[in-house]
Protein: Pentacotripeptide-repeat region of PRORP domain-containing protein
Amino acid sequence: RPLLHWSANERWHWSRRSSQQGSACRLPACILLATVLVWPCDRCCNCSRRASRAPRVSFVPGAIYQQDSRRPTRPLTRAVGVGREVFGQLNFFAEEGDVDAALKEFAQEQERGKRTPGKFPWTMLYNTVLKAMANRGDFVSAGSWLDRMRDERIRINGKTFGKLMEAAARGGDVDLAARWRGDKLAAGFSADAVDANIMMWAYSQAGQIEKVEEEFERLESGGSYVELSSYNVVIEAHARLGRAQDAVRWLSRLRNAGLKPSLYTYLWLVKVHATAQQPGAAHTWYTSMTKAGLDM
Structure:
């Protein structure tokens, strides 16, 4: 059967059997094991964006909610946002990064809003279109959409700037993302952990590991609650550069903060040690992952 259809036990026994056949087999077995583990996760996160010609990413800042062991799980409606309930079809296209379909749906919702007596969530409507542009990484269209919001006197809030930052980060323009964060602060909105995650992820994609750690330290020293996702971004940044020891060091900081590693955390630890030709360490982290009940 194809490797991706193997069960967890089959992957475990296959890797164990391969490791017993000598040092010549251990490294290929471990690297392939890491590929089997990490690739499906990355593929599931990006299959919809590939269809919409969006850039491939393995971490979606502010969009993936990972449960924190130090506080109760948040309600689903809070995690996904009220926009899904109000503009269901439009939000679906926005999450897919389908800007063209989102604009068509926006036109219909706009006409409905003009006919609706009383208050209408105009800012939310425009922000949902901006969300589609952010998921696609189309920061040029996002900037034009911001100009349209200002021309039509649509109220701009903190989430507007957050989507602008995300569009720039996905599009690979770190400087533009930083500039829009500055505009957010200048407009009187406060920075939050989501903004920090976006900037850390953007710096990670650019290979600027020092900037990633600076953003984290600024977030932590500012008194904000540092969630598991923030630690995971730093661990991913080190793993992408093949810095296995630094990734493990940040895992220790994660645990010292009272947090528990997630499946996402372990996958990057397995991958960085496998690509660093350390099959024993990769196998150890995979074992720790399964013992924690986080096997895929």
